[in-house]
Automatic annotation (TrEMBL):
It comes from the Bacteria. This is Predicted nucleotide-binding protein, sugar kinase/HSP70/actin superfamily. Residues 3-221 form the DUF2229 domain. Pfam families: DUF2229, HGD-D. Keywords: Kinase, Transferase. It comes from Caldanaerobius fijiensis DSM 17918. GO terms for molecular function: kinase activity.
Length: 324
């Protein structure tokens, strides 16, 4: 069968696992087109007004897959990706929201990703999901082992490069991008779907590279480094990716190993608004590292972003020159 995977939300985190598992069990995987104006407009038109930008984009990608003629659309129900922590509620109820809001789309198949229940429960869920395609238990186990290996390789690549480059190496060119020496380092923090979707963030990574700035993302940090930054907050952050944003932002502030930090958040995201406030306050309190906060929405303009990035990089260069 032909299964469509939307190029949105946690696609940038788990696509290699999803693709390899499904293909190993004999399915053809079709990915939605890269985000464009038509996809964004369709998502805005067909989702609820209260939804954040990434969810609206997700709706647009689902409608794009409908036009590609897939048999099913894969929408995981992601509750928890690590023990004792959760994801934003939009991931928990996404399959239900899609079914309620979108008519005349291909049937949805879902995999519940919930590590909070424990590994045995997740093992059983993978077997249940695999039985949709085959009754051969050994084949399901082999598909999972292969998917785990490829996902591990992907996560290793993320320590060295951006998600889009890593995906190209795994499933495209198989050639590592040319390593270039940059004049400055900038920490870029934000959810994967905000910093890697080149349409909604208006190619922010490419723009920074063109300004002679190397980009360091939260994915390039170790769990120990994230934990170091997050430890500044007395209460444990129970959102997995919120903790990653917070921990990476405060780690950069601790170590001063970048010239500046850019925080990208999506308009309408409740957890992001809280995390942004905490990071901003701590940066203002210490006043040792420049911080630029960017909020993206469906009305964001490229000219305004370009101006703000250029001004921020000019500030960093001036700061460096004065410090010599």
């Amino acid at each position: 069968m032909v299964i469509g995977i939307p190029r949105a939300l946690l696609y940038y985190n788990f696509f290699p696992w999803w693709k390899v598992f499904l293909e190993t069990l004999g399915n053809e995987v079709v990915v939605s087109s890269k985000t464009n104006k038509a996809i964004l407009d369709a998502g805005v038109k067909n989702s609820v007004d209260e939804a954040c930008l990434p969810v609206k984009v997700m709706f647009g990608h689902i409608l794009d897959l409908k036009d590609k003629g897939v048999d099913y659309i894969f929408i995981p129900r992601i509750v928890s990706v690590e023990k004792n922590r959760y994801l934003c509620a939009k991931f928990l109820g996404l399959p239900d929201l899609v079914k309620a809001m979108l008519d005349d789309i291909p049937p949805i198949i879902e995999l519940e990703i919930n590590h909070y229940k424990g590994e045995r429960a997740f093992d059983r869920e993978i077997m249940r999901f695999g039985r949709i395609f085959t009754r051969n238990i050994r084949q399901i186990k082999e598909a999972r082992e292969k998917a785990d290996r490829v996902q591990g390789e992907y996560e290793r690549l993320l320590k060295e490069m951006t998600a889009n480059d890593a995906l190209r190496i795994l499933f495209g060119a198989h050639v590592s991008p040319e390593k270039k020496q940059y004049g400055m380092k900038i920490g870029l923090i934000g959810h994967s779907y905000d910093i890697y979707d080149e349409y909604i963030n208006m190619s922010i990574i490419e723009k920074l590279n063109d300004m002679d700035c190397q980009v360091i993302t939260a994915d390039m940090l170790t769990e120990k480094q994230i934990a170091q930054g997050a430890s500044h907050i007395k209460k444990d952050m129970f959102w997995t990716y919120g903790r990653q944003l917070l921990g990476s932002g405060l780690y950069f502030l601790d170590e001063q190993n970048v010239d500046g930090v850019i925080l990208v958040t999506a308009f309408g995201c409740g957890p992001d608004s809280l995390i942004k406030e905490i990071i901003e306050r701590e940066y203002k309190r210490r006043n040792t590292l420049p911080l630029l906060c960017l909020t993206i929405d469906e009305q964001s303009g490229e000219a305004g972003l370009q101006t703000r990035l250029e001004a921020f990089v000019d500030l960093l260069r001036l700061k460096e020159a004065v410090g010599r």
